[in-house]
């Protein structure tokens, strides 16, 4: 390989890459390329690639100023180089276009630009333009891929405390050629990789993303995905309430999860999840029975709350264990969490004895969480005891969370690192990790079919146009959605007559191009029971619309419908994924909770069921009883979207679920894109 722009200065890309190759023991031939030097790092230096035999270089690292990148890459291709890494981060658009064309037409594989390179510790091959590896980072079975070089370094440097090693890490930069999903797919086929970490800033090839992640998880690998940029900012995203709730990254977050990835938003949790997985037998399908031993009762309570929220049950200790506690631990009630804080004051060896006992109860316990807090005068012995209890070869795996109130010094850490188990920084944090992993274990047992293919247009050109309520209703009725009985009028007196024909309480809604938010703008009146009240409300609404410049406004008069459960069913057109269906809690809590699940079309019944399972809706008894009707509505809206390319977003909120399972849309709004007329 060649380092073009090599230098002895290790603070520069060319110097760091060359030094990393030498220091990590790359066994191949390294050619420093720099016309100003005869040798660098003890290696003979050439002035240019043309000074080397054609075809003698497989990989060229471009550590040259941005103005030379294109010409040097062209020279590398002409020389027969098969792959190129480009560090430069400030290339102009025209140079980026030339590099993309070069990769497309020549067949050379290009990593970058704006990359820090790659680190393959397993093969001692580190052409990386930075010396930021942790001293404790060793080879292992984890692959880490990110767009950002700094982020990839941060993730990998968090691995050692959990006993986790790195196989390779790559930062892809601007992804002109090689991207995250090329690398994920490669790692999916690598038998020596058991975990893939991918940090996603934007999604450019959703079909490749799904295929790569699904391939990895179906071969038994864990894919941990960190998704950056979750806020709603695009103009199209806020065209409806639904778009604002979904946010910029919502669709890709849910798509990653549906593909089988364990999605996180906490960098610190990534290494901890991998450490936890390494503790567990490969056949584990749930962590439903956790026993907690703590030296702090208050922290034990916090741990119990976190585990409960993650679906992990803290069952009472079995009878034999309760008897053991009574016989061996002074002043300790036999509960779960088991607070041994009082016992260790007089007998610190009880830590090891208690952990050893709990770890023999494999018929009753899936996992033991040991939460150890030590103080300045006893931490060495306490951690030595914890080590003894954790390192014993016993059937129940253990998570050891060790906190020292003044910080662990080297000797304290050494006690914990004597065994082949990770150390979690605190009990509550370890509980969060266990709960998150348990949630993923449950979800990964049933993954939906995902059928992304062909052209999937994102936000289209043109100015979005929001249809008034009644026009939105007419459009969505063709999707098979039910609406309350009613009619639309442009005269207040007629509104009273329609209400009388309906009978019972009615709802009035202003359908006007000047009022998108009807409730906030005074365009809704509910529970009206007499013709005079209906007429008065209709006159007020129509007058308001006329005063706002809308002479064509109308008022809908509809029967009031009960809504024991209110859903949100909608759609957004994601820039990367195209049209997506949105499902979640509706009504007044929709925006406050922002609890929705979003998947791109086409959607079949199993995907609709997955959406319901991953929404808070799925835990509601009435929804459970009538989930088939909700799944039908999701599939129907997805099919309708597939035939309406002009739809930017849909907002059906609330969609009322009645006691007999009937779904009725009580409000709706459709946003279309309008292509500007040609002049």
Task: Note the main attributes of this structure.
679 residues; 22% strand; 7-stranded antiparallel sheet; alpha/beta
Describe the structure.
- There is one protein chain.
- The protein is 36% helix and 22% strand.
- By secondary structure, it is of the alpha/beta class.
- Strands 19, 24, 25, 26, 27, 28 and 29 form a 7-stranded antiparallel sheet that branches.
- A hairpin with a 5-residue loop joins strand 27 (647-657) and strand 28.
- Helix 14 runs parallel beside helix 15 (410-417).
- The relative contact order is 0.08.
- The model is unreliable at 232-239 (pLDDT under 50).
Q: Helix/strand/pairing class, anyone? A: alpha/beta
C-alpha Rg (nearest Å) = 31 Å
| CA(first)-CA(last) distance | 56 Å
Q: Beta-sheet strand percentage?
A: 15-25%
Strand elements, count: 29
Shape: flat
Number of helical regions: 23
Mean pLDDT: 88
Largest sheet geometry? 7 strands, antiparallel
Instruction: Note poorly predicted spans.
Output: 232-239
Helix content: 25-40%
